[in-house]
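Box S2. Input/output pair 1.
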Amino acid sequence: MELWITDKNRLGQPQGTVHEYAFEVAMDGSFAMALWGIWIKPPGEVAVALNDQPVSRGVPAQDDPRHWRLGTLTLPRGRHKLTVTTGEPFLGALLSDDTGIVASGKAILLWDNRQLEGVFDRRNRRSTDSERKRLVRHGFVFEREFDAEKCNVPAGVPLGGIGAGKVELTAKGLFTAATTNNNQDCPIYRLPGSYFAIQAQAAGEQGRVTRLLQTESVDQFFRPVHAIEASLRFPEANLVYRDPFLPVEAALHAFSPHVPHDVASSSLPCAFFRFTLRNPSDRTQTIRLLFSWENIVNVGGSMTRPNENADELLPLVHHTWNHSFPWSCRKTNFQEPAAGEGAGVQLAARDDQRNPSSFGRHMIWTPSAARVIPDRDIEADELAFVKWFEAGATGDFAPTGRGVFRAGALLVERTLAPGAADTVDFVL
């Protein structure tokens, strides 16, 4: 937790060398906080008082070019008064329960990247409509700026190896809350390019039934299934899809490799998806199962450089546990077919844009024979992609959009005789 004490906290005008500020700790409990003063020039001797009780006096130690260490405070919930007596022009103070925030350079980056006056009065800051839309598009909120704080974001079973991040699968079939990019404090909640879809076509018939394997769409153009019967018990999720117009039955068993007392297996950075398909009709059915995944490399993670481009470091995200500028810079992202057995798509980036915490490589894979659609623009191409799939996925899909929001997909086809069943496996 950080508290920035600046002019907006000032109690009246400075009385000579005495600066008085009022601030509030809004959370329950009592917090040990390190205190730094912010000066442009060395301040000389400084006296600090909290609620009119002396805290420290002397020449503070300099921890970086702007922050001088003034001591530690124990702060309970409520309003407090900070008094700083100093001879040099005083810019403000930083209180943080992270004693390494200044030494790591994070404090200067936070200060340098503030975008609006009063931006660090976080509970009171409201995003503009354009900022909120950007945050939604980049995935850091679901619909509203306070989604996470108000618990309005979807939640499901986390899938992923221990210590490797995760993505959650909800009872509605949504993928959400991805933290595979060292972004555990700032999950990617909205993943419109990540989903499963199914299509069934009876032998000799031109008509097809296509459904999104979710009960609601998130910027997707497929029609969702009517209902899902879900059993979510970590580390597994079992979903049975129900739709009166779908002539086949589909169920999903999603799980992570959590093996008791086996750390190596339990730490594999993977999630597994096994579909069971059954044809209860009296006609042979061709079933097409689509797995699409959005390229979220270079999204999330902590910021490690100044905000040189407003499209890369986005406005503040409000979480109950963290308030931060999120990072999203997908301009060097790309996808390509994966080599080796089975079929897959690798999702990567050409470089880390000087923010290595969110840099890496993701892959979707199936051991089955599959069509690989390695790349598409999920804004400009998505409607055409949906129509291509609904028309039977004949020929190759050729992307036309050049936007930075991209995804890859795998398409597995099965032909089931009446009463027959089969399984299809995918790995993320």
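Box S3. Input/output pair 2.
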Amino acid sequence: MSSIWQTTRRFVYKRVLHADDTPHRIALGVAIATFVAFTPTMGLQTVIALALAAVLRANKAVCVPLVWITNPATFVPIYWSCWRIGAAVVPNAAATEDVAVMHRLAAYAHPAHLGRVLTYDFWSQLFYLMVDLGTELWVGCIIVGLILGICGYFATRWTVTAYRTRRAQRRARIEERRRLRSQARAAAKRRTRLQHPA
């Protein structure tokens, strides 16, 4: 757990707060990656996020790690929760049992399937499952992705702006202290020269 926290902290510090880009472009990259991460397009999410970031002129460096929120180890609870939201929203949703959907998704998280994660069969079967789960999954994923993407945009933009403002103020204070010390040293030298003329 501590390694996940350290990795997340390092990502936020290096890739987000210290990215050489505007707060808007960084936040837009986070929003795009978050939205795409929750779409049932696992396996294509990196390509989709980078394409959208290029079209919308967002920061691409923050996209790549964030789209992997959904991965072969996490997609079952994420997609199942999204499916349930979609099933609650879509009128005349298919009368599929929650448990049946969970079992179908969980089958792909089984170690036997995860051993095939680098094969074409794994991804094609997973794609057909995403299609088979239908409108409920897509609607739920889009709702969750939009909400989290919008929240991610504003949270990231505020955080980056606040961090940069504090850092600029800290640098200004350091520079002011250096200037005052330099002036104090120069004044001390002048006093010394006046007191002890050559």
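Caption for Box S3: The mean pLDDT is 80. Residues 35 and 145 are 4 Å apart (CA to CA).
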